[in-house]
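User: Good morning. I'm curious how heme C would be positioned relative to this chain. Could you predict the structure with it bound?
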Amino acid sequence: MKSAAYLRIVGFAIVGYFVLDFAGSTGETSIFTEQPWLWILLAVIMLFYIAGEIIVSTLGSILYRTLSPEQQLAYDKDEALEKANQFKGIKEAYKNLLGSKPIEEEATIVLDHNYDGIRELDNKLPPWWVYGFYASIIFAVVYLVRFEVLGGENQHEEYLAAVEQAELDLIEYKKTAKDLVDFETVELLTEASDLNAGKAVFTSNCIACHKATGAGGIGPNLTDEYWILGGGIKNVFKTISEGGRAGKGMVSWKNDLKPSEIAQVASYVLSLTGTNPEDPKAPEGEIWVDPSLQVEAAETVETTEETATETEETAEL
Ligand code: HEC
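Assistant: Good morning! Here's the predicted structure, ligand included:
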């Protein structure tokens, strides 16, 4: 095979990679990291392509052998010519970009100065340099007007804006990254979609012990206000995630359910409170009061106790 064929193969592989990546990629990560089997697809396509190249070049050499010696000579000459002209355009463009005279023509631009045999050429400035210089003048004018005259953002302001944006992005991200929740950060979910998802998790994992209605069986009644391990979304999340007391039969679900699913099923369980299903299991544990509401409740209890002691004292007298 010719070297051009190798170049074509490499080029084909690169193009193939980018076409697949562009066609399939959804987000910021490359499709090849998301779907590693695509490497195999690319490899298979490459195999077919290389096979095609080999067939074409073999056909070429077979045909060459069927030519008469004169024809072969003529063919070789053509090939040589083609080779000489290969990349001619590129070479030419490169020379133009440098703008220097070829060595054969240097005599026309040599200056009279002669420093101990060292002579000076009056080459034109290379076009890339000249246009770069013009471009930098235009850039400088635009920059000056934009940032010094019209007062564009300086680096510090840009930095502050970027930080602000990053904070917004973080909030957005936390909303979508539901699996970041744990029992400390979890909030009660009330969306119908979340509760339905929670119900699905409950139906497929929990009804053997808690019944489809949550009325209880092997496990306690989940629909009353009594909780063994604490009510409220945070405790319920923790119970489901870490399991109940050792040996009681409520296992930890954190290896089977994602945090988002635990949040959903916990919210679903709490939505069952007060549904009064048929044939409920007797209450176990204690009535659970939300600690944030408990402060007021505790105060009321204290005052009652005080009054009680006072009454007792009076009675003793
Ligand atoms: C193998 C039977 C079994 C399965 C399956 C089971 N549980 Fe339990 N569950 C129990 C038992 C037993 C307890 C009581 C644990 C204790 O006393 O420590 C319990 C306790 C609980 C509690 C705490 C109740 C309270 O009063 O504090 C919640 C909430 C709960 N389970 C939810 C679930 C959810 C949600 C699932 C499904 C993901 C589930 N359970 C699956 C047996 C089970």
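Strands lie at 110-115, 118-121, 226-227, 286-287. The first strand starts at residue 110 and ends at 115.
Let me know if you'd like a different ligand tried.
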